[in-house]
Amino acid sequence: MTEETKAAAAEAASENSAPTPTDTAEAKPAAKADKAETAEKSDTAAEKSEKTDKAEKKPAKKPASKTGKKDGKPSGKPDAKKGGGKTIKKVKYVNPFSYDDELQIKLVNCIMKNGKKALAQKILRMTFDEMNRKGDPDVAKSFELAIQNTTPTMEVKPKRIGGGVYQIPMEVKPKRQRSLCIRWILEGARKRKGIPMYKRLAQELMDASQDLGYAANKKKEAHRMAQANKAFAHLARY
Question: Which CATH superfamily hosts domain 102-237?
Answer without folding.
Answer: Ribosomal protein S7/S5 (1.10.455.10)
